Amino acid sequence: MTATLCTIEELAQTGSRGFRAGEGEWPLKGFLVLTDAGSVRAWLNVCPHAGHPLDLVPHRFLTSDRAYIQCSSHGALFERDSGRCIAGPCLGRNLRPLDIEVVAGEVRLASTVAEADNARRNMSGLTK
Ligand code: FES
Description:
The chain has 128 residues and is an alpha+beta fold. The chain has helices at residues 8-14, 113-124; strands spanning 4-7, 16-21, 28-34, 40-44, 68-70, 77-79, 85-87, 100-103, 106-109. The protein has a single domain, classed as Rieske Iron-sulfur Protein (3-layer Sandwich).
């Protein structure tokens, strides 16, 4: 079963929104951002610099002008559309994308939580 993460209306209020999907002590943690074109991108909430979550304040992933994703730990800036770091200690590295779909105004994971979590583990080199 796929998970509904939020509505487009909720996302539009702040331009970004964190989510947790799955059960147990280690749910899949990601966040959503709106792009200039009005599409939605989803990223794993793990900074490529030091592995910290990007939001020290819940749901706050963007610069004050909403132009870039900003990691709260050491200030790395990422493009909203590509996830590429354009300034900071992980310059040139990328956030990890998650597949989503928008259906009837709701943002959902495009795969099951288990499938998305397996992709996360494979990307980060973690094993079960
Ligand atoms: S952990 Fe994100 S910039 Fe250092």
